[in-house]
């Protein structure tokens, strides 16, 4: 009871007015990181489509889809996504001094973990939706891959 009123007043006067602008500032790098994950998935699937259209090789297609399943764990390919979120380091430094925000590295790491999880979900969903189509007519495979990709991106 003794602490509640001063704490409420402190939050109302010193923190709440800044929350919207803080969230907007933080969401820039987070959004660009997740957009990069989406773009990476799109590029990788487009490469699979292009490769299949050139070779028309179902065995190579299976290999490429299997490689896609490992995409979330390929740090070199995921690095551009993670770098977008590293901009939070600078933004959070200012918040650290103003609002005593600690564990900045934890916030960045958790965001990067969510990005990896999103990619895992995307490639898993792609594989699940595409798997029944692998035995389809090879003339329709590229179209099917494109449809599955668009469905996953949706």
In terms of topology, how is this protein built?
Blueprint: H1 4-55, H2 58-69, H3 75-85, H4 88-99, H5 104-130, H6 138-153
Helix pairs in contact: 1-2, 1-3, 1-4, 1-5, 1-6, 3-5, 5-6
| Major sheet characteristics | none
Uncertain parts: none
Helical proportion? over 70%
Q: Termini distance?
A: 49 Å
Number of DSSP helices?
6
Q: Could you report the average pLDDT, rounded to the nearest whole number?
A: 88
Percent in strands: under 5%
Can you describe this structure?
By secondary structure, this protein is an all-alpha fold. Helix content is 84%, strand content 0%. The chain is built from six helices and no strands. It has helices at residues 4-55, 58-69, 75-85, 88-99, 104-130, 138-153. Helix 3 crosses helix 5. It holds the Pfam family Niban2. Belongs to the Niban family.
